[in-house]
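Appendix C: a fully annotated inverse folding record. The material below is reproduced so that readers can follow the format used throughout the book. The structure is listed first as tokens, followed by the designed sequence.
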């Protein structure tokens, strides 16, 4: 079984802290937060998402990474950036290159600036913006990576058909079991990273996309000694646009978890072997 690093599946509620401040108020006290949002054909959803995130506070900014959406999402993002000067950066890519590479592009862009906290969210309004302060508060309490979790107490999904709920639940349990991690929602994309934890990821050598990308990044944070915390969220199925889930994404994640486990096992075996070797005379 894979050795667990100092991670945690702690849960935090949206209650005032010991000084009586609400989690929302903490957004104004912390180092700048940047929210990365990949987009592909999300024109119908983007204005509402941007308005909700911008309303959280003056120190919250967005990076929108658009893959040349045929529906004009990229052009709309540019107009929103003009309407909110200094609050939104838009990265335009030449075509649909996948969720994982979009996040990596956003990560590199954000790490070139001063942001202390970096969030990731879907553009389809499935991730509740009003829970972002709770994730930020958990990071302020020492979480190197905070997961918005559908599967801890207080979390759930709304609007998914039964087959999709079963697939998601099974995928999380499968990854948790194979990797030996005490986390319940390894496939979700609603996250907050501390800058230091994100900077330690080997971003240019991440292999996966979709579900697999979320598993791989969380795994790397843990292997680097980071503390991972889960905060309950209510996940709502998209109301506009089409899901990007595919069989390829599911299969990639299913194979990835075994690759990660075997790599970890090989590293440990190699370490034991090297410690037992006697230097040549």
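Designed amino acids, in order:
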């Amino acid at each position: 079984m894979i050795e667990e690093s100092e991670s945690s599946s702690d849960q935090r509620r949206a209650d005032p802290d010991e000084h009586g401040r609400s989690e929302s108020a903490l957004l104004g006290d912390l180092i700048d937060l940047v929210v990365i949002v990949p987009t592909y054909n999300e024109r119908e959803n983007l204005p509402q998402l941007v308005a909700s995130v911008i309303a959280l506070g003056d120190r919250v900014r967005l990076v929108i990474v658009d893959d040349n959406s045929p529906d004009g999402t990229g052009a709309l993002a540019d107009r929103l950036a003009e309407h909110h000067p200094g609050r939104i950066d838009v990265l335009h890519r030449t075509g649909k290159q996948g969720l994982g590479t979009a996040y990596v592009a956003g990560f590199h862009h954000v790490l070139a600036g001063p942001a202390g906290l970096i969030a990731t969210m879907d553009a389809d309004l499935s991730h509740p913006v009003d829970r972002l302060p709770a994730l930020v508060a958990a990071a302020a309490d020492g979480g190197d990576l905070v997961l918005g979790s559908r599967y801890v107490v207080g979390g759930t999904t709304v609007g998914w058909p039964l087959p999709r709920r079963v697939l998601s639940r099974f995928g999380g349990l499968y990854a948790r079991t194979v990797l030996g991690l005490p986390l319940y929602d390894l496939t979700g994309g609603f996250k907050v990273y501390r800058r230091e934890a994100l900077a330690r990821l080997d971003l240019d050598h991440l292999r996966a996309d979709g579900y697999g990308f979320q598993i791989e990044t969380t795994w790397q944070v843990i292997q680097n000694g980071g503390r991972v915390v889960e905060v309950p969220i209510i996940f709502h199925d998209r109301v506009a646009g089409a899901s990007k889930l595919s069989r390829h994404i599911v299969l990639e994640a299913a194979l990835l978890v075994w690759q990660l486990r075997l790599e970890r096992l090989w590293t440990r075996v190699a370490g034991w072997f090297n410690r037992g070797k006697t230097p040549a005379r």
